[in-house]
Amino acid sequence: MRHGIIKLTQGNLNNDHLYLTGIMDLFPAASVGGSSDAERAPQLLEVHSGIGEPVVTDIAGDKKIFRRRAWVGEFFERHQLKAGDCVVVEQTGPHRYHVYPQRSV
Fold first, then answer.
1. Beta carbons within 10 angstroms of residue 66's beta carbon
2. Contacts of 57 (CB under 8 A, 6+ apart)
3. How do residues 35-75 score in pLDDT, each as one tens digit?
């Protein structure tokens, strides 16, 4: 399946989000909404992170981040991620994605 890699910044860690700008080609255009919840995209995505239930969200088009992001801080903490670490976003279905830390070999 297709995937993209995101290098984490301190801003990601401070604000519990993932910048999707460099991997936007992984997502259907219909999953990108406007800047507010009222402008949610018509096609929602299912994001699996291994923490709790999958998250159903769209992408906030102005910021290029997952709109629902309460899970992201717990994901960072659970995996002890820091600035400079990388996260993989892998497409596992038409509107389904798996997010996981990239481990060094």
1. 23
2. 44, 45, 47, 66, 67, 68, 69
3. 999 999 999 999 999 998 999 999 999 999 999 999 999 99
Q: Which CATH superfamily is domain 3-101 in?
A: DNA-binding pseudobarrel domain (2.40.330.10)
**Cβ atoms within 10 Å of 57's Cβ, excluding its own:** 21
Contacts of 40 (CB under 8 A, 6+ apart): 33, 34, 58, 67
Chain-centre distance of CA 94, in angstroms?
15
Question: What percent of the chain is predicted at pLDDT more than 90?
Answer: 94
pLDDT of residue 34: 96
Which DSSP helix (H) or strand (E) runs through 55? Answer: strand 55-57
* The pLDDT of residue 91 is above 90: yes
